[in-house]
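Entry 14: structure prediction run for Acetyl-coenzyme A synthetase. Input pasted below.
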Amino acid sequence: MTVQIDHALEEIRRFRPSPEFAAQAIADERLYDAASADRLGFWADQARDLLTWQKPFTEVLDWSNPPFARWFADGELNVAVNCLDRHVEAGLGDRVAIYWEGEPGDSRAITYAELTEEVKRAANALTDLGIRTGDRVAIYLPMIPEAVVSMLAVARIGAIHSVVFGGFSADSLASRIDDAEASLVITADGGYRKGRVFPLKPVVDEALAKAEGGTVKNVLVVKRGENDIAWNEGRDLWWHDTVTTASPEHEAQAFDAENPLFILYTSGTTGKPKGILHTSGGYLTQVAFTHKNVFDLHPERDVYWCTADVGWITGHSYVVYGPLANGATQVLYEGTPDTPHPGRWWELVEKYGVTILYTAPTAIRSFMKLGRSVVHNFNLRSLRLLGSVGEPINPEAWIWYRHVIGGGSIPVVDTWWQTETGAIMISALPGITDLKPGSAQVPVPGISVDILADDGTPVEGEDGGLLVITEPWPSMLRGIWGDPERFRETYWEKFGDKYFAGDGARRDEDGDIWLLGRVDDVMNVSGHRLSTAEIESSLVAHEITAEAAVVGASDETTGQAVVAFVILKERHAHDLDPSDASEELRRHVAMQIGAIARPRQVFIVNELPKTRSGKIMRRLLRDLAEGRQVGDTTTLADTAIMDIISAQVR
Ligand code: ATP
Ligand code: MG
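Run finished. Output tokens:
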């Protein structure tokens, strides 16, 4: 049987770039021509133009041992020097690298010169602690400047960081420390979240008591929360005693382009997280290239803000490495979007004059739920480009983002990529592409993708199939840490030399790509494979809906039936009877998409289960819809949520 995902949702709105935007756009149509004429030559040019190499490379791609790619392998560079020193040497030392804002309202502006000096001190301190090239350092920090400093200091000495999101439990941290055999943990006493200090160092203590490897020799602690913590003399060190007192002179060594840069565990939406390994030269090339062209970055005048935590790939590539390699000025915010008030993000956009904002659909939908009045108290006219990442963005959320946040006329780029791809793979280029709400659109120049049926044959027309990447790309993962077999099995076994992404997709008549959801989530109703993303988008297009998740639950007559979980917008949640709302939504989907997609049930709920990075975990909802014991919830942001939803569903 071949996989083919039926699609039916017609989304016909189109937005041409404005002439003013196009006239100043960084991206150029010729990038596509150059990449299609000579793909490897194109990437070699990008690597030379965007980065500074201590030893130039002569070979571009070595694909002699697939699926293990080597890019620019005989070249040498230092990643931290590319993000810092070279900007200072170019006379940009006084440019602000980071406008940092703490949740309680404290703030710091850090220039490139200051950031460089701090990273040099940290690099010396790490070396004094015995960290050498190839050693693993776990970083478990809140969104404070020291998180960026730590990552760059590790990179500067050729060691490997493994950043673990500060919301993870002691168990999750322990398993990541053990898996990577980390010898140092960098943490803080605590950080601010939702108006309170949340402890971090106590979680590290608990994790180290649990970690079986016993590999950690030291714990370096930043003072942030001022909360009481236990102290392990000899093992624990304060940042301000260790880093702040270290020498600010540090000569950076050049490392091979294929020197490992970091391990990062995926968000665990579908199951057990994988330790994704990325290396240096190719990774930095593609993140710098996409950051510049997809976000139309004018580093001399833009103020960029990516709201992702550094614990996710988006934080690695588009808070740390891409923006700093490009000499950007950016905002870094410690806290939650709604503390101390629901308009906090918009207050920060106004305060810093943010011009480029990059965030996730889950955040956009949560603001839609609250209504536009929260946004309208602030002046957002500085914004000139908006980006989205993490999940398919429903057309209605896209339109809301463009109109309510963007004022109605600025580009919105929907960027498809993964922890594994390292950098953006599919996206519009602003100023060039006619935008279509809900579609991630086209591969970026130099990237080749295709949509295949289960048997590997290309899917024709607008039918959906499986998204694959057909050629190696510079920022591709180099493996799963310590598990080459799982690497082959997960991504390469299915189609041989083509990378299997695990997402369903279709291509429309203009060649634009629409993501249909994860292959594991695709529903099979009476022999039709239906896309979760399309039915969810249809639900969100109804004016009463804020957010929706759709799953296929086993059904005696149809094989699977569509079951939807819907959160209503705040202003409708009180005055609508849930059973009327649910009937209305079933009717709406049947009318918009067709009778085949009509949900068997629509449950009105207050919450949806999400990972800590904000993605909907449909597999748990499927368990619920099928009346099963709910499966592994360890990667859920809030483990109590499933109980609340279960109670509402019954
Ligand atoms: P795990 O692989 O552990 O289950 P995960 O896939 O959520 O977790 P990430 O690497 O953070 O981990 O997420 C990548 C996935 O997010 C993609 O495969 C895709 O399903 C989804 N995604 C990201 N951006 C987009 C986008 N713009 N449109 C549609 N889907 C997106
Ligand atoms: Mg994934």
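Notes: Residues 112-128 form the longest helix (17 residues). Will compare against the previous run tomorrow.
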